[in-house]
Amino acid sequence: MASKNLFLLAGDGIGPEAMAEVKKLIAAMNDKLGSGFTAEEGLVGGCAYDAHGAAISDADMAKAMMADAVLFGAVGGPKWDKVPYEVRPEAGLLRLRKDMELFANLRPAICYPALAASSSLKQDVVEGLDILIVRELTGGVYFGEPKQIIDLGNGQKRGIDTQVYDTFEIERISGVAFELARTRKNHVTSMEKRNVMKSGVLWNEVVSQTHQARYSDVKLDHMLADAGGMQLVRWPKQFDVIVTDNLFGDMLSDIAAMLTGSIGMLPSASLGAPDVKTKKRKALYEPVHGSAPDIAGKGIANPIAMIASFAMCLRYSFGMVAEADKLEAAIAAVLDDGLRTKDIFSAGMKEVGTTEMGDAIIAKF
Amino acid sequence: MASKNLFLLAGDGIGPEAMAEVKKLIAAMNDKLGSGFTAEEGLVGGCAYDAHGAAISDADMAKAMMADAVLFGAVGGPKWDKVPYEVRPEAGLLRLRKDMELFANLRPAICYPALAASSSLKQDVVEGLDILIVRELTGGVYFGEPKQIIDLGNGQKRGIDTQVYDTFEIERISGVAFELARTRKNHVTSMEKRNVMKSGVLWNEVVSQTHQARYSDVKLDHMLADAGGMQLVRWPKQFDVIVTDNLFGDMLSDIAAMLTGSIGMLPSASLGAPDVKTKKRKALYEPVHGSAPDIAGKGIANPIAMIASFAMCLRYSFGMVAEADKLEAAIAAVLDDGLRTKDIFSAGMKEVGTTEMGDAIIAKF
Ligand SMILES: CC(C)[C@H](C(=O)O)[C@@H](O)C(=O)O
Ligand SMILES: CC(C)[C@H](C(=O)O)[C@@H](O)C(=O)O
């Protein structure tokens, strides 16, 4: 049997509480289904900084590189707002993405039927929404050099960041988008700002070439990123798969998540390229919500995004499609039963805490 | 009497149709109120490229620099999708912004009561919405160098754009935001990605310093731009003035505009620094909507955004506050009367074309 070594990085804020529910789930799967997961734990973000002065230690980084999949909670909080830029909590996440070469970030924005009414958008605009944002995750302005603040004298400083994309980076991320579109509604919309950015011109060109060369069966549209943001808010159901760069993907996927009215529910997967020999991809699974320090430690955080991230892990890292389907169905079922954590509560429903929600999902699984 | 020389750049698509309504309005003001406007016209965008191979000619650029205010329609369309990057329609607008040093882009997102129901957001989320996005317009990734595509050989290219902000640029745009906040709800939210971008770190720092030094009476919040986008969609009424950089401002102001359900209604002003001697600011006024080539020439475009842009012109360039108020009231009045262009039509209202809408507003003025 292939190894199933998980590395758990719960991080800060509500990360550990959400991760605790996944740990129970893993134990249950090992016990009842003999799934054979092993799970080691490490530190990332503010808690790693507190422990050893870096947002992730080299030792934990090495474990992440060796693991079959990394489960990641959340990082950051006001406690670390003033730590040096290089060791801020986010640096741990960015190092994981970069060193593991997790270039493909998959962010589904799904509107759970039970929650359609809780969106700030009209119900008919979001009901049944199912889009997938494929965000480039190891390039662009996040990592381009120079990236620095220069002291110009006279009280003037200059802040510089560099947006860089090479052909191969655009090619591989658009390949992922086209492949995934084929398993869905066969429609990709690529977003950039080619009217202003040279990287946008190249992005547009390479996506079109990749399409023509290998995926001409898929419907491809191009949209300017600002217009794309508007269209997401106006009528999101026009989209199936959206492919875009690191920074636009950051903005657009958060907006898409918010449309669904259930940001506490949305998972993500960050994948590397398949290994030439083993065909295995390095992978990290992470809820879209952040560390939510204001509600941390109160037992009220919604663990669904973290559990749904584990479902993506089952699907993409271990090919356990039946189990992934079953876990996603269990989540939908507890929602249908009316169970709600505080963030998604509405009148007439039953408010539950983090552990009750986790237990209910495990019981249905 | 101070000069009132307008330079009109109607541009492409629906630009000329919308501008025609403003021309009627200017004529009416001259006739009936003796307002004393002079108006010259020039070419920008695709039509300028067709006429003389540049997105704006040097002669027209000189006229824009001399004018008391520029009124701008819209640029671009599929006809010019393949023209070289340097002379694409948008280059005309970008040159105007840069050469006139129009660093402050004011984009109000107002939800007209008569249209609250036509937003894709729930009515209670947008009803009464009145926020002002102050976008930096002459810096950032739009203009930073290097900005190029390099051929790396082996079929590989590299697209590069550079995000650059200097202290003084952040200082002056945040000054504009704080000043405007004092005339409104006294609340500024600054948005950047300081957790990823060095320019964001500097942005955050300089906005805070400017606040402490000169505007500590104004409430200031900082928000990460991705979280800001989410909050705009979740509960936009939490904002009063938002100040942000060129690229985030492009995305966020379009999203804010879409929230109101009336993108065809929203104006913008782009202002330079006051001249040391004359105290006059260079200024360009422009609807937020684009050239909408699909409906151009059909007489159905909504002229309200262009007319509302002229109202901003009256207010900011000529201190004609009473006239601006009256013009804005006239717009609201025709909407209350049930007149609607196609883009904002809903059952029970009266559908009208571009000229009828313009005439109705002028009649109420
Ligand atoms: C935490 C932060 C560095 C990160 C990002 O900007 O990518 C987050 O917003 C995300 O979207 O995963
Ligand atoms: C036309 C384009 C260059 C422009 C921009 O990106 O600034 C437009 O989207 C805007 O917001 O005014």
From TrEMBL, chains A, B:
Q: Which InterPro entries match?
A: IsoCit/isopropylmalate_DH_CS, IsoPropMal-DH-like_dom, Isopropylmalate_DH
> Which principal EC class is assigned to this enzyme?
oxidoreductase
State its location(s): Cytoplasm
Which residues bind NAD(+) per the record?
77-90, 290-302
Name the Enzyme Commission number(s) assigned to this protein: 1.1.1.85
GO MF entry, a single one: 3-isopropylmalate dehydrogenase activity
User: Where in this chain does the record put each Isopropylmalate dehydrogenase-like domain?
Assistant: 5-361
Q: Which cofactor does it need?
A: Mn(2+); Mg(2+)
* Binding-site residues, Mg(2+): D226, D250, D254
Q: How is the cofactor bound?
A: Binds 1 Mg(2+) or Mn(2+) ion per subunit.
User: Is RNA-binding set as a keyword in this record?
Assistant: no
What keywords tag this UniProt record? Amino-acid biosynthesis, Branched-chain amino acid biosynthesis, Cytoplasm, Leucine biosynthesis, Magnesium, Manganese, Metal-binding, NAD, Oxidoreductase
| Site (Important for catalysis) location in chain | Y142, K193
Pathway field: Amino-acid biosynthesis; L-leucine biosynthesis; L-leucine from 3-methyl-2-oxobutanoate: step 3/4
Give me the reactions it catalyses.
Answer: (2R,3S)-3-isopropylmalate + NAD(+) = 4-methyl-2-oxopentanoate + CO2 + NADH
Major subcellular site: cytoplasm
Q: Which residues bind substrate?
A: R97, R107, R135, D226
- Homology family: Belongs to the isocitrate and isopropylmalate dehydrogenases family. LeuB type 1 subfamily.
Q: Which HAMAP family does its entry note?
A: LeuB_type1
Provide the assembly information. Homodimer.
Q: What does this protein do?
A: Catalyzes the oxidation of 3-carboxy-2-hydroxy-4-methylpentanoate (3-isopropylmalate) to 3-carboxy-4-methyl-2-oxopentanoate. The product decarboxylates to 4-methyl-2 oxopentanoate.
Q: What is this protein called?
A: 3-isopropylmalate dehydrogenase
Q: What is the lineage of its organism?
A: Bacteria, Pseudomonadati, Pseudomonadota, Alphaproteobacteria, Hyphomicrobiales
Q: Which gene encodes it?
A: leuB
